[in-house]
Amino acid sequence: MAGDFLLVAALFLAVGLPAAAFPYRVSKLGERVDAIGSKTPKDEVEPAEWNVTLTRFVGVFMSALGVAYLFA
């Protein structure tokens, strides 16, 4: 039971911390994946400002959930 909480906490922190710390890079990666099959070269895609902000918010939220699971 305690191992499950640690696994969930590690998963939330592994995804949330990079998204909170480097939201532009994570958003740009998502845009590059979305550009697959498009005529726009992957080097020319840029994430919108709202996407970067949303990525940071979700990253902070997931990190907080990870910390909550660590101390639960």
Number of spatially distinct domains: 1
Strand content: under 5%
- Count of extended strands: 0
How far apart the termini lie comes to 11 Å
Helix content class: over 70%
Alpha carbon gyration radius: 15 Å
**Globular, elongated, flat, extended or rod-shaped: what is the shape?**
elongated
**How do the SSEs run, as a string of H and E?**
HHH
Q: Number of helical segments?
A: 3
Largest beta-sheet details? none
Average per-residue pLDDT, rounded, comes to: 93
Which structural category do the helix and sheet elements fall into? mainly alpha
Which spans of ≥5 residues are poorly predicted at pLDDT below 50? none
Oligomer: single chain
Please sum up the structure shown.
By secondary structure, the protein is mainly alpha-helical. 75% of the residues lie in helices and 0% in strands.
Structure, explained:
The structure is a single chain. Helix 1 crosses helix 2 and helix 1 packs antiparallel against helix 3. The protein is 75% helix and 0% strand. With 72 residues, the protein is an all-alpha fold. The model has no long low-confidence stretch (mean pLDDT 93). The longest helix is centred in the C-terminal third of the chain and has 22 residues. The chain has one domain.
